[in-house]
Design brief:
single chain; 238 residues; mainly alpha; 72% helix
Length: 238
């Protein structure tokens, strides 16, 4: 039930409406969600590569990412990056994050990130296990962020934080390790494994900037880690 609720909360996969409490208690299973997302996108890349040229394949993979996640993490990225770029703290940061309008910083940095992601997917069209590993690392970064964040607040992030305190970190690490074994065995750069450390960096930043855990910062952790993992894993041209 917990895994189903987590899948329902983090993706648009139709498994019925889950419980937020169950999803929060099951956040340690996040690598499984990431692996599932990654296998879907990687499978689409494999299929589409036989139909379209790589540029179109990479573009469709970007669109599939947004559809599969419901744009949840990308929305968090745009909100949080606006506050970061504006160097805002406290009430000003809260105002920026809660503003439904997207400012210039959000548009510029989100556009730049999408362009970089597109370029990396273009290089990873024939690297399905790298794509699967990158999504696994991105989902793990959300768990790391929530686990490492400090402070109390309200909203979804606070609910997840409360349920994640002591929420099976060793089980989470074991699941993450097992989820990445096929990718590492397939030759994916093991440094991809370390990408979720970025979640700790974001946790420190949100403590400094907001004094509390933030769902937008969790989305920021996911999207930036996904891009970082792809950048680390894409073979370097020689």
């Amino acid at each position: 039930m917990g895994l189903r609720s987590l899948i329902s909360f983090l993706t648009i996969i139709p498994l019925g409406r889950g419980s937020l409490d169950e999803a929060a208690r099951s956040l340690y299973l996040a690598p499984i969600i990431g692996l599932l997302e990654g296998l879907i996108v990687a499978g689409a890349l494999v299929v589409l590569d036989g139909i379209y040229q790589p540029p179109a394949t990479a573009a469709i993979a970007l669109l599939l990412h947004l559809i599969l996640t419901g744009g949840l993490h990308m929305d968090g990225f745009t909100d949080y990056v606006e506050a970061v770029a504006a160097r805002a703290r406290g009430e000003e940061a809260e105002r920026i994050i809660k503003d439904p309008r997207k400012g210039g910083f959000a548009i510029a940095y989100t556009t730049a990130m999408i362009i970089v992601r597109y370029a990396l997917l273009l290089e990873a069209v024939n690297e399905p296990w790298l794509v699967a590993a990158a999504y696994t690392a991105a989902a793990e970064a959300m768990y790391v962020y929530i686990y490492a964040s400090k402070g109390r607040g309200s909203g979804l992030a606070a609910a997840f934080k409360e349920s994640t305190l002591g929420n099976k970190p060793l089980a989470n690490l074991a699941i993450y390790t097992i989820a990445l074994i096929p990718a590492i065995a397939a030759g994916v750069n093991p440094l991809v494994y370390a990408a979720p450390i970025l979640g700790i960096v974001v946790a420190r930043d949100s403590t400094y900037r907001l004094g509390r855990p933030s769902g937008d910062a969790a989305g920021f952790s996911y999207e930036t880690t996904l891009t970082l993992a792809l950048a680390v894993g894409v073979p370097i041209a020689t």
